[in-house]
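Hi X.,

You mentioned you wanted examples for the new student's onboarding notes, showing what a folding record looks like when two proteins sit in one file. Here is a clean example. The first protein comes first, with its sequence line followed by its structure tokens.
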Amino acid sequence: MNSDPVSDLLTRIRNAGMALHPSVSIPHSRFKEAIARVLKDEGYVAEVAVEGDKLKTLKVGLKYQGRKAVIQGLKQVSTPGLRRYVAGSEAPRVLGGLGVAILSTPKGIMTGSQARRQNVGGEVVCYVW
């Protein structure tokens, strides 16, 4: 069992994308589901579904352009050993706006641009491009 669920989520998505798998199954948590839903809203993954009733799994359908995954890169920013926090106005831009920063804020998981718009700060979870 990985002690860092966000790292596990990002690694599984990255590996499945490189192997051109149509979808990937991940042990469920509400936090991971919220991150996956942001990825879906931003157009990086095709679908997000929760399967099972007792032991839930999160099924993420991946998107491709030809033989290339839509997600070119995933980078975890905040780790269990070193948490990274930003103020609402300082939410980072990824690749000059081409990527997305995912933040965990008091108003829920959201992108960096949504956090800037609502002026809420929080923990920078990861960058996706």
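Then the second protein repeats the pattern, sequence line and then tokens:
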Amino acid sequence: MSTSSPGSAPTPSDRGLDTVLGAMADRLDRMPPERTSQRLFLETYRRTTAAVGKAISDAQFEDPHWVEQWDVVFADLYLAALDLDLAGSPSVPRPWRLAFDAPLELPALRHVLLGINAHINYDLPQALLAVIRDVDFDNPVVVGRRRRDHERIDGILSGRVAAEDEELGAVAGRTLLDRVLQPLNRLSSRRFLREARQKVWHNTMELQGARLAGPEPYAARLAELEVLSAARIADLLAPGQVLLRLAVAGFGVTLPPPALDAR
């Protein structure tokens, strides 16, 4: 698993996605039976990771080696949070702690959304920083390539929406209203996932500016992102048609400009 030092992004790993998929399968095997919501998210994430691996094999990215390295670091952030929670550690990042501690009786969709919030809004900018070097940020050609590959993931996620919707339906069942709203819900999911990833790129650039300023500014900005991501939980738990609400109000979070005294 990748490691990180205080005030820095995680360290890239040379492992491939096959190793990550194996690590996910191992945790599924060891998952306590009462942790049904965590199992649900892990199963969803494992299928999505496999889809990214297939896209890499199918040459859908400009820099497939970079995408694989990035996706490994990305997955490691989730697995590290999961391991801390399984060990009863108090050091679980707040967005993940709130997701893991959510009431079991919540609908399956809500549990998956809580995990997506922590992983995309909080983890993904950190993963991007881990695999985009300072010198790369100074090169418009490289940054453009990285951003385009980041955006290509949207197509993979959009392609998984229908299949994952069927998986959730099989687990939780569907009401008549769910069946009526199913096409709109799927469209909403594609929309808010794309919107969130666009905000991720903005947040990555904000964190990069803080990283250049030093470990303390970086840690402060990352703490801001942690708070923003944790605050998103209230929207995900509010009653009503959550997917439709997210399509209108948005799913992602946006780091504001740094405070004047932090520049």
